[in-house]
Amino acid sequence: MSGLVLKLGPRERVLINGAVVENGDRRSRFSILTPDANILRLRDAIHPDEATTPVRRVCFATQLILTGDADPEPTRQQLLRRIEELSRILTDHDSRRLLGKATDALINGQFYQCLKALRALLPREDRLLAAVPR
Q1: Contact 102, 117 (CB under 8 A)
Q2: pTM, rounded to two decimals
């Protein structure tokens, strides 16, 4: 995660190497200098009970790498397969672009960037699932 810059709002929380850190009363900006630090904004976190859709499950698995709860190497291979499966379903140009960004970030070990690209698919997935008759 070399070169990661965190911009935190007042009272925003972030998980850094297993420790929850809360920002003060003002906006702040931090540069993360340690290359393999495990970092996750808690506002971006998906609770295990919420990982009920294909994109949310991929986001959750990526999140587990960021929190240090999953070994990056075997999880990376699983994620690449899952992203490939998503690319067979989400065939529009914008979804493909985001899945491509997620794949590139994953291959380069940029797990936060991967999560960011995958999270951008959540509103689209929500719209598609809402359109499916039950």
Answers
A1: yes
A2: 0.85
